[in-house]
Amino acid sequence: MSTSTLPTTATLSSPSTIDAAVCGGEDGLEYRGKGFYPTFEQLMLTDGQDVSIAPISLSAQMAALTTIGASGDEIDGSDVIDTASPDVRLALNKMIRDAERLAQHYADVANGSLTANSDLTPIIDSFTGALIACTTAGYQPTWFNPGKLTGN
Fold first, then answer.
1. Confidence band (pLDDT; 50, 70, 90) for 8?
2. Structure letter (DSSP) for residue 12
């Protein structure tokens, strides 16, 4: 069983403390988003052209994003995210909704019941929004390098 570094909502005292928890650490974007980041980076740097991603891998990456804010074996972190600052809360909730849709879609693709013709633009946009919100709140994930994406 995993021991979580994310405090419960009862022990969190302010939105900035919650922002730190859901943006950084084991149960935040820092840890749960790092699996998707190489895919995100590849899609951003190539404008999505000629990118081949195994559906089961993309499904797993999306599933990990949906658990941001959840501690231990929990899968729903919405109670914690909903107490974050407005910008972080809105960005993470949108990203999680987009990731939930794609996780199921690509699991179905991997199982052969659908074709992989899903537009990844919504998750690219919402993941970018979550990265910006966390960075603006002062909790930029260590693996996020905006200069590499923008060429600056």
1. very low
2. -
